[in-house]
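Hello again, I could really use a second opinion on something today. I've been puzzling over a protein and I'd love to understand its fold better. I'm sending you its amino acid sequence along with the backbone structure tokens. It would help a lot if you went through both lines with me. I've dropped the whole record in just underneath, so have a look.
***
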Amino acid sequence: MGKIKLPPYGISNYAQIKREGKYMVDKTKYLERMEYAGNFLFLIRPRRFGKSVFLSMLESYYDIEARNDFDMLFGDTYVGQHPTELHNQFQVLRIDFSKPSSSVETLQETVDGYLDIVYESFANKYAKYYPENYLEAFYRQKSTTDRINYVHQMFDAHHIKAYLIVDEYDNFTNAVLNQHGEQVYHAMTHAEGFYRNLFKRFKGSYDRILMMGVSPVTMDDVTSGYNIATALTLKKNFNEMLGFSEENVREMIRYYNESGLIDVDVEETIQTIKPWYDGYCFSEFQHVTGHHVYNPDMVLYYLNNYIEEGEPPKDMVDPNTKTDYAKLDRVVRLDKMDGDRKGVIIEVADRGYTYGRVKRSFPAHEITDPNMFKSLLFYYGMVTIKGIEEGMPILGIPNLNVREQYFNYLLVEYNKICPLNVSILEEAFRKAAYRGQWRGMMETICQQYHDTTSVRSLIEGERNLQGFMNALLTLNPFYLVCPEVELNHGFCDFFLLPDTVRYPDVRHSYIIELKYLPMTATEAQAEAQWQEAVEQIRGYAQGKQVRLLAGETELHLIIAQIKGYDLVRLEKV
């Protein structure tokens, strides 16, 4: 089989991946598509989704200085077999705006210093294509602007073809927007603002430009300072440009099986990781045709751990992919937001989805609109396109990884109002999983719910009761908590599906049905509701899918009836 190609986990340099013989999913066919799409391109994808390694690949493909390495870098790829006329025809300048500090007080100085370094490196790299005094003249320039203008003038004077690649174009401006609000941001991006002038320097100097980032806010604000012609973000032909298709993942698992590094059932492994890593769709049309993609970082994390440890990771979520609470909190409270954004978060956490159209771009002053906030969540990868209903896109949580982020956020919010004693749940979860002692788990959660009765804005009514339950049940390490799973032609409230990959010795599984009674409900209404719940949960348990999902575990059917904020009845059926 030859040298085994290890996963390129954590490596974003394409040339390094190829030189070290790492495994590479071939995305080179998109280089050809991009050339047809236009000269000035713009793409948004969530963080940790393979943007940097793709840009590195693009840099290697077009850089005139990499032409001697073309066969090594691309010989075994699609574009290596079908090269375009533009390969290795450009002087390539790559800018990564995640590197300058986002401190608003020193931002311009920091960015200028970074651009000085980038342009100096560029000038030295390509000096041989210019007159002998090129570098001397470059260093005589007195300011960053002068040095940039000099390089661009030399493009024209010597008919140089230049390609500009900008990674994280929105990084520091989004940070300023989050931390300092719209007023400071507006001053940077409008009139003769610093950021606006920055992009004016690039306009007209490069034959081709590709920019990638996370949100569309910044580009909309600077379009008159720099006009991007073609946005690829929502185009169906570029849906899978970043991320792995299921067939990509299947091929990787099969490769490592055949190489002897792992010994797994390919389809069982797909079914294990699919709920955690799959589910992203960036085009309405592609959802209809079933084209979803996996987060590539998460897949590589899983396989790398399996190869190193001989078993799947205990934590299915790569810590590097988690949107930490502070970032999500800043997005929710952006510019002293009211409760609308928080309401959207709760809606998505409770229902698993919301309805809304994804805006292709929007200026910063519209970011306070809750409808725009849904688009922002889409671009951050916190919701994705799940379908179309009556012409309106369904924006849903893509997978369990993202779902955990929502509930971690809600838990922090709950804790601000009434501290939750989460530690006592750990023992209750263990006893429920291994001994079938479910009552302690349920009573503890219901007591926590009772103790948060002051949270009128966050917990009120049946939907938010389910959200609260979801948040606490998600802390249970022994189960995949599946809310509103369709079982035997009905939707149960919760199915605690044993995570037998990480905990193969779990002995018990649970279907949990919640029933919420208003304070005004009578005893007769309560009894009628209870009997309805008994009939429902027994119906769920009769489905063939239930036995398949529960495996060899003992299945428990639990009903909890809550009136107002008090648990009034809790029984196993």
